[in-house]
From TrEMBL:
Keyword presence, Metal-binding: no
Protein's UniProt name: non-specific serine/threonine protein kinase
Catalytic activity: L-seryl-[protein] + ATP = O-phospho-L-seryl-[protein] + ADP + H(+); L-threonyl-[protein] + ATP = O-phospho-L-threonyl-[protein] + ADP + H(+)
SUPFAM superfamilies in UniProt: Protein kinase-like (PK-like)
Gene Ontology biological process terms in this record: negative regulation of apoptotic process
Entry GO MF terms: ATP binding; protein serine/threonine kinase activity
Location(s), subcellular: Host cell
Keywords, ordered alphabetically: ATP-binding, Kinase, Nucleotide-binding, Phosphoprotein, Serine/threonine-protein kinase, Transferase
PANTHER family, per database record: PROTEIN KINASE DOMAIN-CONTAINING PROTEIN, SERINE/THREONINE-PROTEIN KINASE PIM
Cleaved signal peptide residues: none
Domain of life: Eukaryota
Active site: 122 (proton acceptor)
Enzyme class, broadest EC rank: transferase
Amino acid sequence: YGFPNGVQAGQVTCSGSHIFFTSAFLTFCYQQNEEKQVPYEVGLLLQVCAEPKCPNIVHMLDYIITTSFSFIIMERPESYINLSDFMSDEMGPMKEEQVRGVIRQVVEAVLHCHSRGVFHNDIRPGNILYEPVTGQIKLIDFDSGDVLQENMHYTFPPGAPECYPPEWKFYKKYKAEPATVWSLGKMMFQMLSGIIEFDDEKESIMNRLNSISPVSKEGMDLILKCLSIHPKDRPFLKDIQMHSWLQEPDKVADNIDWIHVSKSI
């Protein structure tokens, strides 16, 4: 379990690795390093997974193209579970040091994608694999991704509805980086509060967080900046990476529920 809609899991022995399959109708795009065209998601993954690889992104091992479907063979890391499942099992907010570790790695993964000219466009807990003991993450599912156009407005829906930034709701357009930052802010709120839905008003966000689990001043500052209604008021990803909240050292919680270790996706 634990994969997003449209993704089918399978376990196959392949050089000691577990892999899963995802199938989608073919949408071709041209790759300069390919003699033939490849499905769009494959093209994005070829760019993202080229050496040097990012440890916070699930790696594509191979792909198969048929006349009707494409099969993308990905690594399946042992002991990782879907972050949304981990949040559900916790039945409450995650610890702030856990959230800090997740966000730090997601920002690194997104910056890697952007450096390769790829816009993931669906950053949310359901697209994060999480290792409960080490706190390591891997970003998955590039099905909603696109070629990164930093100064262009995208006019198609951004990933899952839970990721929709205000500018899409109001104007039906958005830019890659501000929309990604909004998704990061919303994911921070979800992990720190245990609440999936929330109002966009800053006062409501602050009150709901503090009423459930008090958040540090630095953590609240970053959430509120990421969830600014106007895209121009949101920080850049590089600013988030350098934010004081993310500069604090990682701490591994001593009381992590070891039952998560035995779970498989």
